[in-house]
Amino acid sequence: MIKNLEQNFLNSHESIINAFRDLETSKNASVNYDKWKRPEGGGGKTFVIGGGNFFDNCAVNFSSIRGKNLPKAALGNSIIKSANNGYQAMGVSVISHPKNPHVPSSHMNIRLFCILDKKNEIKEWWCGGGYDLTPYIPYKNDYKGWHKEAKTLLDSYNRNFYKKFSKNCNDYFFIPHRNERRGIGGLFFDNLSKMSMEKSLVFLSDIANQYKESYLSIVNLRKKTKFSSDEKNFQLYRRGRYAEFNLVCDRGTAFGLQSNGRIESILASLPSDVKWSYAKTKEYVKMEKNLLKYINKDWNV
Question: How many other CB atoms sit within 10 Å of the CB of residue 69?
């Protein structure tokens, strides 16, 4: 049964890889695609592309791992679940850091956690996931469309989902030491098990596909926009916020580390080029002030 479950995630994994390969036109881009195994059980596939015309770096990960002790990060705010006989966790995660600062960074994750019984069968399960967008040079209509498309998908399952999942996203992707959100949001959910597993797997696949389609529509609008050195430097400084969130706040990163995951795959989500600077230029201050008007706004549609 586990292999049948894994195939749903592998399908999403390959679909996104194929779409992102098409975005990179440089023959000199660095492309790595490898399979790996985990000593404690399970393994995964990691696709990383960067250093090209479109991507500074991008990672598309699939993992399916087994373990005896469920990491605390897997539980979030849910009640403590007994995993005396071990667990199985599988999912796909995507992070895209384009070269052009007019194209936002983006993130998507879908995941399934299974608590196993003595016969290694699934005793209890729940799923989670979502996607969000981190812009640098803001475009109001892009974000309206991003949220509208998310709402349309979620409404087809439950008309209460969008309001709840959009708020979850705003609350989760928040950097407390900066008092800022990471981006303009999207959707985020966890510990979801009200639907059947079959329907939940379709739901997760739809989430991954909607992310891909919504992101590509923005990419295609902005990828040919010319940018200045000031705009590129601003992007690199703001990517520092992305790194801070992933290393300090992100439960996915914590889960990977707590479960003795593959470090190269876990940290592949970090941007390849980042700047931190104590002194900020007037141009930076002006651009940041404008951007924060969009980041600290509720885009619920």
Answer: 12
Residue ranges in 161-281 assigned as alpha helix (H): 161-172, 197-222, 229-248, 251-258, 263-266
Q: Which two tokens stand for residue 20?
A: 């992102």
Nearest to 59 by CA among 294, 266, 301: 266
Dihedral sign computed on CA atoms, order 12, 15, 18, 19 = negative
What is the rounded CA–CA span in Å between residue 48 and residue 28?
14
Question: Mind giving me the DSSP string for 131-182?
Answer: EEEE-SS--HHHHHHHHHHHHHHHHTT-TTHHHHHHHHHHHHSEETTTTEES
Residues 6+ apart with CB under 8 A from 145: 214, 217, 218
How many alpha carbons fall within 13 Å on the CB side of residue 92?
A: 29
Q: Choosing from 97, 102, 107, 147, which is the catalytic residue?
A: 107
Q: Which residues contact 275 (CB under 8 A, 6 or more apart)?
A: 233, 236, 237, 239, 240
Dihedrals phi, psi of 127, to nearest 5 degrees: -130, 165
Q: What are the pLDDT digits (tens) for 168-188?
A: 999 999 999 999 999 999 999
Rg of the chain, C-alpha, whole Å: 19
For residue 40, give the amino acid letter: E
Distance CA 9, CA 11 (A): 5
Our answer to whether residue 177 is catalytic in this structure is: no
pLDDT tens, position by position, 15-71: 999 999 999 999 999 999 999 998 878 999 999 999 999 999 999 999 999 888 665
Domains of the chain in sequence order: 2-295 (3.40.1500.10)
Distance between CA atoms of residues 23 and 219, nearest Å: 9
Q: Token pair of 299, please? A: 């885009």
Nearest-10 Cα torsion for 5, 11, 12, 15: 180
* Global confidence as pTM: 0.91
